[in-house]
Design a protein that fits this description.
heterotrimer; A alpha/beta (about 325); B mainly alpha (about 300); C mainly alpha (about 300); A: about 325 residues; alpha/beta; Rossmann fold; 8-stranded mixed β-sheet; 5-stranded antiparallel β-sheet; about 35% helix; B: about 300 residues; mainly alpha; MetI-like fold
């Protein structure tokens, strides 16, 4: 029995008009998420992760232009529907958790109101059912005395609690798909682990698809079923979590993994790996490999044409001219050095 | 470990970087493309030139009465002549000349009222924001008292006591406007006071006066200029209003507010007597406002909207 | 909340006392009031009689405490000109001024809130530009000039509204239009910037991610937050209008407090002037105090913080 695909996106591009020209924020991005599966999108800030999530939610700012070959949720096409139809899916079939829980809740309404509102908006029931559902979910996310918490205002809660409220709010209508954009970046370390565990267990329990956006490979290792590495608005490597960590094929992924200190292997006092150079500006027409100015294995061919995705197997691909064997050899050499 | 790549300089490493113009360059570019700033600035400039060269440009002496030539129509009216392009007033004085000389009063009072209140208000605000504590409490109290007083009535009372000389008007109007500068400079100073470069200056033993003038003032200057331009516009309106009520510039000095007030008795059959000076105030104030908004957009475009 | 309230009350009382001193001293700055009251050719004996009659021979602080003590019991003295009790004079006329100020704010809000919201939802479109243009117009046109233009158009040409007096509702239409247009820009700009700020905030993105309808996002989640500074501005503007109706009341011959103050300033009737300044200051203090309380009710961060 195959697990059904919940979210399917093919060749998504987002262009933003800026004073200097056209900014290619996301270029030809494809992704698939199955029921109950976690896809981690990893990359540094400005690589287009958040824009991708807003594009899927149809929440892009008006100056951003979206194009795609396919975008569907539970088999339903998302490209040709009106915004009002899209709105009826948001919060119901697809929910989103944002980075900063301190500012993501409306300061002038009670928590309860903000949770119940989604439920009522999507016609799941009246005020009473909504309240029951909210209390049920607050218990689920590990909140003691849910009834009291529901009558409080956001500023009365800590950051960790607010993010749990956000998670509960996203689950109000039992969505098929959740997008979490750096959900723990604004929390302190102890809260991060708790919140992630909670997210993972709830996702498995509800059999929800999850796209988790992060810059933290530690979170990827802990959460991901499959991984997509993004660089400069493109996907540069995809694969299962094991494949990405064991056999990273793109020089950028290798660079990221070399930045992680490994207990026992990284000697105290030694330099941690770093990727030299800066991310290119994505304005105007762009040719060749985006990573070439930071890559140690750059050749003449890297400067022109479109570098396509090399598919190794189903769901496993990388965007580089090197062969997988060559690339992996470079990685092993460096790791041994 | 990988440490060999850190020092290698690749001559193609920076090919992706975009050249960024310097801030003054950017400001010049924004100024040139800001229609409001150019339009408003030109009108203000013209008014300034008219004010300075009024004695040369004006066709007649604005105080010269000729009771045989009272209330003559302007050139587009039935009996208009080129001798008095905008006609004459109830005492036979050339209206164009009076309006041209009127720009002197408006610009002078507007400019100096804005400048004096800027100096007083900013000093008060920076002192409160910089020292904090009791000094700041006292300054907040001063601001609250000022806000509670009905400004226009206080100004009218003061004019009735001290008279409507230009200097008295400038000082009285300055009293009306200092609080806005104080409020803004105070809050900006509070924000920059905690910065490391201020602490560093204090640690070096730099005097408070030098820190305020050398480190804080340059940071609030933009805001002061923007407020000053907007307050200058308001000062011109209030001067005109006081003069209109007879408690401002005294006759026979040609102030635009006074011209409207004098023209009021004849406005039903000679509406141009109030429309011309009224429009002069309106246009000058709009122009100053546009220029002020322009300065704000040009110096701090992120503060737009 | 209780702490905030006590502090706020303490400041208010302090400001009120200061304001009463200023109001008291305002017309006394001119020096010898008794000599002025007695007239130009009064003999020293006559001046002395007048000084004793009005208590002007006593030290200033005694005069102040006498006046303040009586004021606390509601007795503000008698007018030097009509010999009527000042308290009665003011309460006879304040209704007109309150009506004027209130209707003006209502007009300003009716125009500015919808326009400000529209301008923030469609920034940099023709709606935004039109409302900005209207704001610039309202800001730049002197209210006495605008009032005269209205009289020319609606009073004389079209004969829609009466041009003087305060007998009927129709008498208030042109005065409130003038004042309303004058204060409208502040509300519009505040609504627009407030809404732009709020619309760009994270919680609005959350509300949209929840699938709420655009109207619900706008009017439930956004406006509720943007309304807070508008409440504060309403109190400030209402306070300003109570003391700022002088010109309009005198142009439209509305028998309100502003006109009374103006007349009294002209004839140096200091018991009336000081009482009006004091009462208007007190009402400003009470208005801002109540707007703070309303805001505390509307904003749980203050109420429970």
């Amino acid at each position: 029995m195959t697990v059904p695909v919940v979210l399917n996106v093919e060749n998504l591009s987002v262009e933003i008009t800026v004073p200097a020209g056209t900014l290619h924020a996301v270029s030809n991005l494809s992704l698939k998420v199955h029921q109950g599966e976690t896809l981690c999108i990893v990359g540094e800030s400005g690589c287009g992760k958040s824009i991708t999530s807003l594009a899927i939610m149809n929440l892009l700012p008006s100056k951003a232009k979206l194009t795609a070959d396919t975008m569907s949720l539970e088999g339903r096409d998302l490209l040709d529907i009106r915004e009002s139809e899209f709105a009826s899916l948001r919060g119901d079939r697809i929910g989103m958790i944002f980075q900063d829980p301190m500012t993501s809740l409306n300061p002038v309404f009670r928590i309860g109101e903000q949770l119940e509102e989604v439920y009522i908006q999507h016609g799941k029931g009246g005020r009473k059912e909504a309240r029951e559902r909210a209390e049920f979910l607050l218990e689920k996310v590990g909140i003691i005395a849910p009834a009291e918490r529901l009558s409080q205002y956001p500023h009365q809660l800590s950051g960790g609690l607010r993010q749990r409220m956000m998670i509960a709010m996203t689950l109000m209508c039992d969505p098929a798909m959740i997008i979490a954009d750096e959900p723990t970046t604004a929390l302190d370390v102890t809260m991060q682990a708790q919140t992630l565990n909670l997210l993972r267990s709830l996702q498995k329990e509800c059999n929800t698809g999850l796209v988790l956006i992060t810059h933290d490979l530690g979170i990827v290792a802990r959460m991901a079923d499959r991984v997509m590495v993004m660089y400069a608005g493109r996907s540069v490597e995809t694969g299962t979590a094991v494949e990405i960590f064991e056999k990273p094929t793109h020089p950028y992924t290798q660079g990221l993994i070399n930045c992680i200190p490994v207990p026992g292997r990284t000697k105290p006092g030694s330099h941690l790996g770093s990727i030299r150079g800066i991310v290119p500006a994505l304005v105007g027409d762009i040719e060749g490999c985006m990573f070439r100015n930071r890559c140690d294995h750059v050749s003449e061919e890297c400067y022109s044409g479109e570098i396509g995705l090399n598919e190794i197997s189903e769901g496993r691909a990388y965007r580089c001219l090197l062969s997988p064997e060559e690339s992996l050899r470079n990685f092993k050499l460096k790791g041994a050095a | 470990m990988n440490n060999q790549s850190l020092d290698t300089t690749d001559d193609r490493a920076d090919e992706f970087e975009v050249s960024v113009p310097s801030p003054p360059e950017l400001m010049k570019r924004r100024a040139k493309s800001h229609i409001g700033f150019i339009l408003g600035g030109s009108v203000v400039l013209i008014a300034l030139l008219v004010a300075i060269f009024a004695p040369v440009l004006a066709p007649a002496d604005p105080y010269d009465q000729d009771l045989t030539r009272r209330l003559i129509d302007p050139i587009w009216g039935a009996k208009g002549t080129w001798k008095n392009p905008l006609g004459t007033d109830a005492l036979g004085r050339d209206y164009l000349s009076r309006i041209m000389f009127g720009s002197q009063v408006s610009l002078m009072i507007g400019f100096f009222a804005a400048a004096v209140s800027a100096i007083v208000g900013s000093c008060i605000g920076m002192i409160g924001g910089y020292f904090g504590g009791r000094i700041d409490n006292f300054i907040m109290y001063l601001i609250n008292v000022k806000l509670a007083l009905p400004g226009l009535l206080v100004a009218l009372s003061l004019v009735s006591v001290f008279g409507g000389s230009i200097i008295a008007l400038i000082l009285i109007l300055s009293f009306l406007f200092w609080d806005r500068y104080a409020v803004v400079t105070r809050s900006v100073t509070q924000q920059i006071r905690v910065n490391d470069y201020i602490t560093a200056a204090q640690a070096l033993g730099t005097s408070h006066t030098r820190i305020i003038l050398g480190e804080i003032l340059p940071n609030v200057m933009n805001q002061i200029i923007v407020i000053a331009s907007l307050e200058m516009a308001v000062a011109i309106i209030i001067e005109a209003a006081l003069s209109f009520l007879g408690l401002g510039v005294q006759p026979p000095t040609p102030s635009w507010g006074l011209l409207v007030s004098e023209g009021r008795s004849f406005m039903f059959f000679k509406p141009h007597l109030i429309v011309l000076p009224g429009m002069a105030i309106f246009l000058l104030v709009i122009a100053i406002n546009m220029m002020g908004d322009g300065i704000r957009d040009i110096t701090a475009p992120e503060g737009r909207n | 909340m209780a702490k905030f309230l006590i502090h706020r009350l303490y400041i208010s009382v302090l400001v009120a006392v200061t304001v009463s001193v200023i109001a008291f001293g305002l017309l006394r700055l001119s020096g010898d009031l008794a000599a002025e009251l007695a007239g130009e050719d009064a003999t020293p004996e006559e001046i002395a009689v007048i000084a004793t009659q009005y208590g002007l021979d006593k030290p200033l602080y005694v005069q102040y405490f006498n006046w303040a003590g009586n004021a606390l019991t509601g007795d503000l003295g008698r007018s030097l000109f009509t010999n009527e009790p000042v308290t009665e004079m003011i309460f006879d006329r304040i209704g007109v001024t309150i009506k004027l100020a209130f209707f003006s704010i209502v007009i300003a809000l009716i125009i500015s809130i919808p326009l400000g919201v529209l301008a923030s939802v469609y920034p940099n479109t023709w709606i935004d530009r039109t409302s900005l243009g209207l704001a610039v117009f309202g800001q730049a046109i002197p209210n006495f000039f605008f009032a005269l233009l209205l009289i020319l158009l609606f009073g004389v040409k079209l004969r829609w509204f009466p041009i003087s007096g305060n007998d009927t509702f129709a008498h208030f239409i042109m005065p409130t239009m003038t004042l309303g247009i004058g204060v409208m820009p502040q509300f519009m700009r505040l609504t627009r910037t407030g809404m732009l700020d709020v619309l760009g905030s994270d919680f609005i993105r959350t509300a949209r991610a929840k699938g709420l309808s655009p109207l619900k996002v706008l009017f439930k989640h956004a406006l509720r937050n943007a309304i807070l500074p508008i409440v504060s501005l309403m109190a400030v503007v209402l306070g300003f209008l109570l003391g700022g109706t002088v010109i309009i009341e005198s142009i439209f011959a509305l028998n309100g407090v502003g006109f009374l103050a103006f007349e009294s300033i002209l004839r140096q009737d200091f018991p009336v002037v000081q009482s009006i300044v004091f009462i208007l200051s007190l009402s400003y203090i009470l208005l801002t105090l109540s707007s703070d309380l309303i805001n505390a009710q509307l904003d749980p961060r203050i109420r429970l913080g």
